[in-house]
């Protein structure tokens, strides 16, 4: 068993406007588009990250060919005046980038927030009025401790199927 203890902190509150920027010296993100259709909001960022050869950063996007994800960064869509917020669909920050041979990675990050729910209780509708007071809250997770422990469960077997 591996356990990682993480601390979460807000690293930015970004207005929901084209051209809004987040920059921490390693990550630069620019909001490039928003599209609201029937209560479902799609937000796109162009994100550029630099990783130093001898000092890799755990906060960088994980690369898998064209697919990028960052399990340590989350953008919540928040309306502070109403006391409401939306978690992004798929629960994280995902995007697409092109493989390169440099230490600079440019990615188009796609965030989706859905107020039209198929099941469960109805959610407040994301419409122009709701978005007028909305921003994106960037939350980062930082690992502050790790531990591992070997666990043995006697008599546990996985049935083999042929």
Walkthrough of the structure:
The chain is an all-beta fold and 162 residues long. It is built from 1 helix and 11 strands; from the N terminus they run E-E-E-E-E-E-E-E-E-E-H-E. It has one helix at 128-131, and strands at residues 2-15, 21-23, 27-37, 40-50, 62-64, 67-70, 73-79, 84-86, 93-97, 104-114, 134-148. The strands form 2 sheets. The chain has a 7-stranded antiparallel beta sheet with strand order 2-3-4-10-9-6-5, with no helix packed on it. A 4-stranded antiparallel beta sheet has the order 1-11-7-8, with no helix packed on it. The longest helix has 4 residues, at 128-131. It is globular.
Brief digest:
This protein is mostly beta strands and 162 residues long. The protein is 2% helix and 54% strand.
SS summary, helix count = 1
Number of domains: 1
Largest sheet strand order: 2-3-4-10-9-6-5
Q: Give the proportion of residues in helices.
A: under 10%
**End-to-end distance, in Å?**
29 Å
Beta content: over 45%
Element pattern in H and E: EEEEEEEEEEHE
Largest sheet: 7 strands, antiparallel
Q: What is the C-alpha radius of gyration, as a whole number of Å?
A: 19 Å
Write down how many β-strands occur, each being a DSSP E stretch of 2 or more residues: 11
Q: List low-pLDDT spans.
A: none
Structural class: mainly beta
Q: Shape from CA axes?
A: globular
- What do the pLDDT scores average to? 82
List the helices and strands and how they pair.
Elements: E1 2-15, E2 21-23, E3 27-37, E4 40-50, E5 62-64, E6 67-70, E7 73-79, E8 84-86, E9 93-97, E10 104-114, H1 128-131, E11 134-148
Antiparallel strand pairs: 1-11, 2-3, 3-4, 4-10, 5-6, 6-9, 7-8, 7-11, 9-10
